[in-house]
From TrEMBL:
Domain of life: Bacteria
Species whose genome carries this gene: Parahaliea mediterranea
Any one GO molecular function term: DNA binding
UniProt cross-references to PANTHER family, sorted A to Z: TRANSCRIPTIONAL REGULATORY PROTEIN, TRANSCRIPTIONAL REGULATORY PROTEIN GLRR
Alphabetic keyword roster: ATP-binding, DNA-binding, Nucleotide-binding, Phosphoprotein, Transcription, Transcription regulation
Name of this chain's protein: Sigma 54-interacting transcriptional regulator
CDD domains: AAA (cd00009)
Keyword Nucleus attached: no
Every Response regulatory domain range: 3-117
Residues modified to 4-aspartylphosphate: 52
InterPro entries: AAA+_ATPase (IPR003593), AAA_lid_NorR (IPR058031), CheY-like_superfamily (IPR011006), Homeodomain-like_sf (IPR009057), P-loop_NTPase (IPR027417), Sig_transdc_resp-reg_receiver (IPR001789), Sigma_54_int (IPR002078), Sigma_54_int_dom_ATP-bd_2 (IPR025943)
SUPFAM superfamilies: CheY-like, Homeodomain-like, P-loop containing nucleoside triphosphate hydrolases
Length: 442
């Protein structure tokens, strides 16, 4: 159900328009001032704004400017008096979706609403729940989702960046659900979870006898996702040789299974994701520049959970209810102190870490209300867990560089010789970890 925000300082007109729109199945929010409207936009998702040009505090154009800056995917329709037609035309030229004159004609109103929602992938019933699985009320996330909804209408490749556990696959699913491909498969694969030979076969397929263990033909995920969306998670971990093969498929729109001489056409929208700095990897030679530009037509960067703290209580309550369904107890809520601790925690593991903490507290809770002590214990336990492989490798690499630089007293040539790396490569490693040879000299 599309949610429409009506903004007018005339309570009578608000009531009339609300009745008309609710009769057509829309959810309606009302604000009698620009300030109230902006507060509502911050607090919850809105799919369309309909505002009077003349408001008591700010005018409709000022409201439009602020809405476009903070929520670029939300269209705005302006209602004007008869004498304000020139201003309305100017507003349309600025980017206002449309304007209506008073008295508002019902058919014209509904027509403009449908046109506006059709441009934001909300014009039909089947895709109106495209983002229901993403729980958020933060402005940072709303900006990302507004851009996601706009890009869903096209077929361009999207690169989603953000820390581990920030919800990159969920965002990719939302883009798929808001697109014209929604009725076809969404196929995810983690490019860092499989060895190179197996990843090649998984992506492109193979024919029987192509290698030991290939007992039958396999389509591969590109062909399995035909007509839909292929999500390449952790694309930065893909080996260079496979990057060449992937680039060829994206350019030619054809895939050739391992061991076959025959190519097959594929119609697939590719969304990729990574927590790595691919531009840095390109400089290091670990990621192909031509593939990067092919994948990164539109970049959507997910904010860390620490930058969207207003979402933590929503997410924690959601995870609590989900976890409590399978528990023996009757856990209902977090105590105020427990929730305050959750909101103030650093969350280096983002939403995934929050979910783990909630699941631990629900499993160990002995009352309906989870106390602060149980949350603190779970957070301490999380901090003691093993880091991810990539994080551990990064830390080992830095510790090793520090050790050889200390041994060589800042002599890079000698340190590179100890590490059995050429001097240029060693300098690049130092730059990656922001280490200076001068700080290790006696």
């Amino acid at each position: 159900m599309a949610r429409i925000l009506l903004v007018d300082d005339d309570p009578g007109l608000l009531r009339l328009l609300t009745l008309r729109l609710e009769a057509e199945g829309f959810e309606v929010l009302c604000a009698e001032s620009g300030a109230a409207a902006l507060g509502m936009l911050d607090a919850q998702r809105v799919d369309l704004v309909i505002s009077d040009l003349r408001l008591g505090d700010i005018d409709g154009l000022a409201l439009f400017d602020q809405t476009r800056a903070r929520f670029p995917g939300v269209p705005v329709i302006i209602i004007t008096a008869q004498g304000s037609i020139p201003e309305a035309v100017a507003a349309t030229q600025k980017g206002v979706f449309g304007f209506l004159t008073k008295p508002v004609d019902k058919d014209e109103l509904l027509g403009q609403i449908r046109d506006a929602l059709s441009l934001t992938s909300l014009g039909t019933v089947e895709d109106e729940h495209w983002r229901d699985h993403l729980i958020s009320r933060s402005e940072a996330m709303e900006q990302v989702l507004s851009r996601a909804r706009l890009v869903a209408a096209s077929d361009v490749s999207v690169l989603i960046t953000g820390g581990s556990g920030s919800g990159k696959e969920l965002l990719a699913q939302a883009i798929h659900r808001a697109s014209e491909r929604r009725d076809n498969p969404f196929v995810p694969i983690n490019c860092g979870a499989l060895p190179e030979a197996l990843l090649e076969s998984e992506l492109f397929g193979h024919v029987k006898g192509a290698f030991t263990g290939a007992l039958r033909d396999q389509l591969g995920l590109f062909r399995a996702a035909d007509g839909g969306t292929l999500f390449l998670d952790e694309i930065g971990d893909m080996p260079l040789t496979l990057q060449v093969s992937l680039l060829r498929v994206l350019q030619e729109r054809q895939v050739r299974p391992v061991g076959s001489t025959e190519s097959h056409p594929v119609d697939v929208r590719v969304i990729s994701a990574t927590h790595r700095d691919l531009e840095h990897d390109m400089e290091e030679g670990g990621f192909r520049q031509d593939l990067f530009y092919r994948l990164n037509v539109v970049n959507l960067e997910l904010p860390p959970l620490s930058a969207r703290r207003e979402d933590i209580s929503l997410l924690a309550t959601h995870f609590l209810h989900n976890s409590a369904k399978g528990s023996r107890g009757d856990v209902r809520a977090f105590s105020p102190d427990a929730m305050a601790l959750l909101v103030s925690a650093p969350w280096p593991g983002n939403v995934r870490q929050l979910e783990n903490v909630v699941q631990q507290t629900v499993a160990l809770a002995q009352s309906r209300v989870i106390p602060e002590s149980l949350v603190r214990e779970a957070l301490t336990h999380e901090a003691d867990l093993l880091p991810s492989f990539n994080d551990a490798r990064h830390q080992f690499e830095r510790d090793y560089l520090v050790k050889v630089l200390k041994l060589s007293e800042g002599n890079v040539t000698q340190a590179a010789r100890i590490a059995q790396r050429n001097r240029t490569d060693f300098y690049k490693l130092m730059q990656r970890h922001k280490l200076s040879a001068a700080s290790f000299k006696s």
